[in-house]
Structures are given as structure tokens and as C-alpha cells.
Amino acid sequence: MAMDFDWLEKSIAKRKLTTDERAALECVQATTYTVGQTIMAQGQPGGTLYLLRSGKASVEDNQNGNRMHLADVVEGECFGALTFLNGEPAMAEVLAQQNCEVYSLAHDDFSGLMRDQQDIAYAIFTHMLEHQAHVIKSMREALLPVLWKLKKKAEGLPLFVKLFPLFFIIAYILAFFYISYKDFSY
After folding, report:
1. For 120, which of 76, 110, 134, 182 is 20 to 30 Å away at the CA?
2. Residue 24 — φ and ψ, nearest 5°?
3. What pLDDT tens digit does each residue of the chain (186 aa) get?
4. What's the pTM?
5. How high is the pLDDT of residue 182?
6. What is the SS3 assignment for the chain?
7. Which residues contact 107 (CB under 8 A, 6 or more apart)?
8. How far apart are CA 36 and CA 99, in angstroms?
């Protein structure tokens, strides 16, 4: 399957690509996935950035057979950014919820783009960072009400419950010094 350069220019580069840039982007793999297929498996080796060209996918955590939906990925969004950057195994699984067309870029190929085609490498990296900023903002917005509720509950706790950790730390330090003093007294 061929890459849709018109879409890439509009969605990622935000400008017309040169002939050399188009040639350099031949390293990007275009793959079609059907509903239910795994696009990225949890635990698979890292080092690949994925860009959803079309369709919808689900990001899920699958620990010991317990599956938890974490997020949806829609057209134009990327995933696998953390494993792309650090090379660690994927921490989640991505499944096609609809038929999906996915572009994938290996870290080594991205390094070649950075060396030979800095402008398009910069555009890809910027797109990835903008997406990550959006994810962080969404997480903040989702967690903020929970944090406010916890803060309100903590304010209502009795004083002895709030001070108990402090007393525990002081007792631990005193026990440490007592044991140290006891070991050195002859």
C-alpha cells in the first residue's frame, strides 16, 4: 500500500513536500489492519512510532488477562511515542476498532531522516510532541476533579491521622540512633 502524501502534507508537514522528502519517506511502512487485529502488542520491542492514517483504535492495558481500556486513537493521532523514544517494550496494546490504515516509522529510519531531511523529521517530531501535550492535558483535566475531592477529604481528617506519619518517622530515626549507639558502646 502506498503512502498518502497529500494527507501527510496536510496533517503532519503542514506544507508541500519536496521530491527528496517524498523519496526519503519511503522508509515509512503503510499497513492495513482489520477490526480486532493487534496493531501494537503489549511487551513488543520498542523503537517504532505509529501514525493512524484512518480508522479508530483502542489502547488497552492487558495485565494477567485483565483488560483495561486506556484511550482511543483516531485519525491523525500517533501512538507508541514513548517506546519510540526510549526503545523499551510497549506498555500497552493497541487494537483496531475499525479498519485502520497505519503508518509506522522505525527509530533508525527516523535517525536517517534527522540526518538527511531535517525539516520533515522536525515536522514528525513536532506532531508527536503536540499529541503528547494533548494527552497530558487530557489526563490533567480528568485527574483534577479527583485530586480536589481527595484534598477536601484530607482536610477533614482528624489531626492525629495527619500527624501519625511524622511520629512514625521520628520513632524510626530514634530507633536507628539507639541501635547504632548500642552497637558502639562497649
Report:
1. 134
2. -65, -30
3. 788 999 999 999 999 999 999 999 999 999 999 999 999 999 999 999 999 999 999 999 988 778 889 899 999 999 999 999 999 999 999 999 999 999 999 999 999 999 999 999 999 999 999 988 888 888 888 888 888 888 888 888 887 777 888 888 888 888 887 776 666 555
4. 0.76
5. 64
6. CCCCHHHHHHHHHCCCCCHHHHHHHHHCEEEEECCCCEEECCCCCCCEEEEEEECEEEEEEEECCEEEEEEEEECCCEECHHHHHHCCCCCCEEEECCCEEEEEEEHHHHHHHHHHCHHHHHHHHHHHHHHHHHHHHHHHHHHHHHHHHHHHHHHCCCHHHHHHHHHHHHHHHHHHHHHHHHHHCC
7. 47, 48, 49, 84, 87
8. 9
Give the C-alpha separation, 90 to 77, whole Å.
17
Q: How far is CA 166 from the centre of its chain?
A: 36
Amino acid (one-letter) located at 151 = K
CB 64 within 8 A of CB 75: no
pLDDT computed for residue 184 by the predictor: 58
Pairing of strands 48-54, 100-106: antiparallel
Measured CA to CA, the distance from residue 103 to residue 86 in angstroms comes to 19
Q: Give the pLDDT score at 157.
A: 80
**Alpha carbon 177 to chain centroid distance?**
44
As a whole number of angstroms, the distance between CA 80 and CA 142 comes to: 21
